[in-house]
Amino acid sequence: MEERLIHPAPESPALSGALPPAPAAACGAAPALTVLYDGACPLCRREIALYRDLPALQPVRYLDVHDSASALPAGTTQPQLLARFHVQQPDGQLLDGARGFVALWAALPGWRWLARVARLPGVTPAMELAYRGFLRLRPAMQRVAAGLEPPALHVPPALRADLRSDHAGETGAVWIYRGLLATSRDPGVRALARAHLATEQGHLDSLRPVVRWPQRSWLLPGWRVAGFLTGALPALAGPRAVHATIAAVETFVDEHYREQLDRIDALPEPSRQAAAPLRALLAQCREDELAHRDEARAALTAPPGPLLRAWCAVVGSGSKIAVALARRV
């Protein structure tokens, strides 16, 4: 049976592997909220791993219903519990579906606000309808997750927020070049945009298995709009504005990736070795962004004027604000 009581700070399990057993000292300390999940479902394992990384505000026990050795709540069956998400409260009450998620979110820092929103009139019933729709799609999503998903890279806890901002940033970069292609008719700008778009899309595809969907920024729709405008607006002013904008964006991105590489290099030896594949990925992304920056700078035939410098300052400041938000939301 796979169980664990979470008190002050859990261990960080790998998102794609088995969840670790509980420390013996933690068992039976206090009545716990029991989360019953399908350990054979890759989608469920990823979501539960995300929750277990958080220091719960009350004891939380995770029970793998798929494990035949698990002691199920009285009056329940394995097929019943596998069909829907369930949470058993300390008093024994069993909540399923949207109500179960709300009960769990209320116990987790960073998710309590969502539980408060869900308790507004009409929100939980709407969530339940959405959850039932998800259950219809879940079998197909499970097949994709089990058969096509590459193994996740090890992400040190100190870099998880940075990786969320990387995924958000690469999403925005893809949309910068889509904005350029939608607006510019200059052949040189369009050729540059197509080449850079292919590179940024490759970065995004590489980060998707590392930053799983529950960990991604909730503001992704906003980053897409912001990226599109960052590409489309300077395209209206001509190639010089486009090249200056790209140089400004990539200058910031270079610093952002370099800070993460330095953070990995400062880790203790075992952690640094475990993060070596991730470091290689981030280093390659940085090299590509430097090439984009240098290409844009070389295309500038004259230094930017006051108005263009002001625009580039706005782009740089906006990038810093976007990273700060994406790290948190």
Question: Can you summarize this structure?
Answer:
With 329 residues, this protein is mainly alpha-helical. It is 61% helix and 5% strand. It starts with a strand and ends with a helix.
Would you give an account of this structure?
This protein is mainly α and 329 residues long. It has two domains: 5-124, no CATH class; 157-328, Ferritin (Up-down Bundle), CATH 1.20.1260. 61% of the residues lie in helices and 5% in strands. It is built from twelve helices and five strands. Strands 1-3-2-4-5 form a five-stranded mixed β-sheet, with helices on one face. β2, α1 (42-52) and β3 form a beta-alpha-beta unit. The protein is elongated, with a radius of gyration of 23 Å. The protein starts with a strand and ends with a helix.
Secondary-structure blueprint:
Layout: E1 5-6, E2 33-37, H1 42-52, E3 60-64, H2 78-83, E4 86-88, E5 94-96, H3 97-105, H4 112-118, H5 123-147, H6 160-183, H7 187-207, H8 220-237, H9 239-265, H10 269-274, H11 276-299, H12 306-328
Strand order of the largest sheet: 1-3-2-4-5
The largest sheet, given as strand count, sense and whether it forms a barrel, is: 5 strands, mixed
Structural class: mainly alpha
State the end-to-end CA separation. Answer: 34 Å
Q: What string, H for helix and E for strand, traces the elements in order?
A: EEHEHEEHHHHHHHHHH
Estimate the strand proportion.
5-15%
Could you name the CATH topology of the largest domain? Ferritin
- Uncertain stretches of 5 or more adjacent residues: 1-29
Broad shape = elongated
The total strand number stands at 5
